[in-house]
């Protein structure tokens, strides 16, 4: 009888998998190793390099984020891009992580990671507006790989600003009020 139940359950699971009805994303884990909450996303987007006046060096629209179930998947995606860049032409493209922001204090909840063609040594990267779902949704974050981040309460680098040198684990009155970001070389304030 026990074999019949196991066989029946396995048969149902195989049938569902073959039909595509049982497709679900892997459980994933959050930053702290615990299972990620349902619907939590970890996204990555290419940062736009700015000139000395704060204008984008390249005309065009900002890239859309690519999202994953876990933060380690974001890191693997960036490592894959960097490996491909090394094999094609490291001078043309690289995927250096320059900063990350989170929906919850202390680096918790969903995350949005920013990458650039190089670290912030000699480069400044900006987001005059944030990707969909991230405006007024940031509760912690900071710069990485030689970058500090300046957070702004209004789009287009307006309103009040807060410098994270390099990390802001909690934003107090700034919680869920960030509308623009600039990543600068460590030691430079916005």
From TrEMBL:
Record-given protein name: Peptidase inhibitor family I36 protein
Signal peptide start and end residues: 1-24
Domain of life assignment: Bacteria
Record's keyword terms, sorted: Signal
SUPFAM superfamilies registered for this protein in UniProt: gamma-Crystallin-like (SSF49695)
The species this protein was found in: Agromyces sp. G08B096
Keyword Lipoprotein annotated: no
């Amino acid at each position: 009888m026990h074999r019949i139940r196991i066989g029946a359950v396995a048969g149902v699971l195989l049938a569902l998998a073959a039909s595509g009805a049982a497709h679900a994303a892997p459980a994933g884990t959050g930053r702290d190793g615990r299972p990620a909450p349902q619907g939590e996303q970890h996204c990555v987007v290419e940062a736009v390099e700015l000139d000395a006046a704060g204008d984008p060096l390249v005309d065009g629209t900002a890239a859309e984020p690519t999202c994953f179930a876990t933060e380690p998947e974001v890191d693997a995606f960036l490592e894959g891009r960097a490996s491909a860049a090394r094999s094609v032409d490291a001078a043309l493209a690289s995927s250096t992580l320059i900063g990350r922001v989170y929906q919850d204090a202390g680096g918790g909840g969903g995350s949005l990671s920013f990458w650039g063609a190089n670290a912030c040594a000699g480069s400044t990267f900006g987001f005059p507006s944030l990707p969909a779902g991230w405006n007024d949704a940031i509760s912690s974050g900071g710069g990485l790989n030689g970058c500090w981040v300046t957070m702004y309460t209004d789009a287009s680098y307006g309103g009040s600003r807060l410098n994270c040198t390099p990390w802001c684990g909690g934003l107090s009155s700034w919680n869920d009020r960030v509308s623009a970001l600039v990543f600068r070389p460590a030691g430079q304030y916005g």
